[in-house]
Amino acid sequence: MKLTKNQFEEKLKNQELVITLMGMSNIGKTHWSKKLKNLHFEHKCCDDLIEKIIEPELTAMGYKGLTDMAKWLGHPFEKQFPANQGNYLKHENSVMKKILQELENKISGNITIDTTGSVIYTGDYICNKLKEKSLIVFIEATAQMQQEMFERFLKNPKPIVWAHSFNKKEKEADMEALKRCYPELLNYRTNQYRKHADITIAYPKTNYYDSAENFLELIKNHL
User: Fold this and answer.
1) 168-221 pLDDT, tens per residue?
2) Beta pairing, strands 42-45 & 111-114
3) How many Å from the N-terminal Cα to the C-terminal Cα in the chain?
4) Most buried one in 20, 64, 70, 85, CB count within 10 A?
5) Local structure of residue 78 (DSSP, 8 states)
6) What CATH architecture does domain 5-221 belong to?
7) Helix H or strand E segment including 35
8) In whole angstroms, what is the distance from residue 137 CA to residue 121 CA?
9) How far is residue 118's CA from residue 70's CA, in Å, rounded to a whole number?
10) Closest by alpha carbon to 67, among 154, 162, 175?
């Protein structure tokens, strides 16, 4: 959704603003969504909604929470990964369609859609509908951040869909292959996020200590 600064301010004031946050895991989508709750934005967290669908399976394994959901999905070199990745994407599609239907029926209230890093794999139909119904903000990781992002991924695991971005060379160790392919995954996703985004904000500009008001002002200044 293309907006002018004036249209942005009007929608915000009239409780009609829908913001979709896109970007890699650990880039700050949930952080900003939670801050915007202080300004009475409804927070639609896609990770939480997917986890709720998978909850019976997670509970049976003694798992709970996003970190355990990452264990359930696994790394792309683990045997459970292909089947679980397929199920994860199926559930993500279901969650996104439900959110889009809710936007169709929406009467009032500002909303933040906190997408997963893999929302781009739900296909052009869903991404185009998101763009029709919301202002898509891509928080972009800079090239210098790639190593830091990988370390965050290992330290604070979140479910990551790799699709076709992982390949393992002969005699290459699992984690070596993961480390080599991660920048390729980041580059592929960056191009896809840019394709769908209305605006792109570089990660260093999204200061974690800023207020929700400052974050909205940052978005507005990029329109």
Assistant:
1) 999 999 999 999 999 899 999 999 999 999 999 988 777 777 899 999 999 999
2) parallel
3) 11
4) 20
5) S
6) 3-Layer(aba) Sandwich (3.40)
7) helix 29-37
8) 17
9) 13
10) 154
